[in-house]
Amino acid sequence: MTRKLGLLALFxxxxxxxxxxxxxxxxIFKEHCTSCHGDDGKGIATIGTPDFTSAKIQxxxxxxxxxTTITDGRKGTIMPAWKGMxxxxxxxxxxxxxRSLGPTNGPGKAGPQGQPKAVASHAANLQRASY
Length: 131
Known about the structure:
Layout: H1 2-21, H2 25-32, H3 34-37, H4 55-60, H5 63-72, H6 88-100, H7 117-129
Helix pairs in contact: 2-6, 5-6, 6-7
C-alpha cells in the first residue's frame, strides 16, 4: 500500500512538472503577436494580418503551414521568422493557440490533447529530440 501511494505521489509530481514545463501558447501570443494580430487574434485590417477567428482563414491553413509561418516568417510581409527566438515547443504552443482561436468544428482541428495533428506531431518530435 505504501509503495502504491509513493508511486502515485511520484506520478502526480511528474505530471505537475510536465504541465509546468509546457509552453503557454496564449501567453506567448499575447507577448509577441498581438501588436500585429490583435489581442483577440482577429488581425488588423490596415496592416493586412489574418483574422484567426475566421473559419475561412482557419480552413485555408494546414497545421504545418501555421508552424512554418511562425518558424520562417512570410517573405514580402511584416511577419517575422521566430526561429531562434522561440523554441520549437513555444512555436508548437503558439500554433496550437492560433488553431484554438477558430471555430471548434473545422477540419483538422483536434489531435491528441486537443492539439492540431501537425502541432502534436511537431511537439512529439521535439520531445524525442530532447532526450
